[in-house]
Design a protein that fits this description.
The chain is an alpha/beta fold and 227 residues long. 28% of the residues lie in helices and 26% in strands. The N and C termini lie far apart (60 Å).
């Protein structure tokens, strides 16, 4: 029997309800085979994937109106996968990835709770090397720039999985690493902008920003030219 305790909740996005099974709180821990420990996930950070954060709610809210037609979409560091679940409800071509070994099983469980189609999931760390994910037209994520080295690792991971024409949308709560990340993305041919979320109805206390990066065929070709 699992030692974990769960919480069941429903988050409303307008008239759309997303049902979730999450960890009850951030005190939960269950790594009997030391799988997470082997991957470098400490006991203190183990439960962070399994709760709902303000940034993930803001990202999911943005996905309500996001253009999805003809776009292959990846949620990076999906955690509990709220944005992926919302996009799945909209029948988007959505895949998800996370470093945590329990993120995939939790995502599958929540897909079932919402009567959705299976969401392709690959467990992958940003420094793991080549993955089987492929390349995407839109890459999204929330609260990813958690540590100083994450800007380098994430920009490299995105570069490996971005189509030449690609949009990247991140929700950042303001941990101080977004500036470095933006510079690295600019070096990879992306233009960028940042703004406050337009709709604060659900997350009035959220103090962060939406970071948007985009690269078109012209900028990608210029980047590829020898200097």
């Amino acid at each position: 029997m699992s030692a974990l305790r769960f919480r069941y909740q429903t988050i409303e996005f307008g008239e759309l309800d997303i049902h979730l099974r999450t960890l009850r709180d951030r005190q939960q821990f269950h790594d009997p085979g030391a799988v997470a420990e082997t991957l470098g996930v400490s006991p203190a950070s183990w439960p962070l994937f399994g709760v709902v954060w303000a940034s993930s709610e803001v990202l999911a809210q943005l996905m309500l109106e996001m253009e999805i037609r003809g776009r292959r979409i990846l949620e990076v560091g999906c955690g509990i996968g709220l944005a992926s679940l919302l996009l799945n409800h909209r029948l988007a071509d959505i895949s998800a990835t996370d470093h945590h070994p329990e993120a995939g099983p939790f995502l599958a469980r929540n897909v079932a709770l919402n009567n959705g189609r299976a969401i392709p999931f690959v467990r992958a760390g940003w420094s793991d090397g080549a993955s089987t994910l492929g390349r995407f037209d839109l890459i999204i994520g929330s609260d990813l720039l958690y540590e100083p080295d994450h800007a380098i690792l994430l920009s490299h991971f995105i570069a490996e999985h971005a189509q030449p024409q690609c949009e990247v949308l991140l929700v950042d709560p303001g941990r101080g690493h977004a500036g470095k990340f933006s510079c690295l993305m600019q070096d990879r041919g992306f233009r960028h902008e940042r703004h406050r979320p337009a709709d604060q109805a659900q997350q009035q206390d959220f103090k962060g920003h939406v970071l948007r990066y985009w690269r078109d065929a012209t900028s990608a070709a210029t980047l590829a030219m020898p200097h």
